[in-house]
Amino acid sequence: MKTIYLNKLGRGCRRLAAPAALAACAAVACLPLLADDDETPLMRAAERGWADRVSSLIASGAQVNERGEDGETPLMVAAEEGRANVVEALIKAGADVNLQDYDGKTALIEAAAEGHERIVMMLLNAGANVNLADRDGDTALMEAADEGYASIAEALLARGAAINAQNRLGETALMKAADKQRIEVIQLLLSKGADRNRNAARPMRKN
Asked: In this structure, what DSSP letter does residue 33 have?
């Protein structure tokens, strides 16, 4: 079921049709709460980068770890979108940095995949588990390697990322980097001791 979080003022604004009435709502900062039915005001604010609104909504009772339709949290949304100011506000408000969505992705995995190095560091400093994997077995390091983000990969390794971890297909970060010809990442991983002889899983033959 989709979650709809609207305060009384927000509900009133949704029912108003006259331009003058809508202008009155805008004057009291009501319009930012007019979320679509499939997103809450907190999710909307996190996605848009409205850190002050995020803090205000949480202070008014919004749940910092609320879930979206796919199990994502406001922190995951902000991390994916690169909203560092919102990530900071959510962490200060007690957001759980290790929650996973229904695909197993964490805020750290999202940030690493999108190349948001500052957010990666914020999450690591807040206690993010560097080795959590999504349902395909991919970790933040694998995502960074796949996309060619060498500085992020180095930061993850410095925090204990398992360099030779394999996903469900048997792929390692090195294999992903090699497949995409991410030369800088390949060099980094090899210099840190990545196993170049590990093999990926082979598809099972059908009889």
From this structure: G
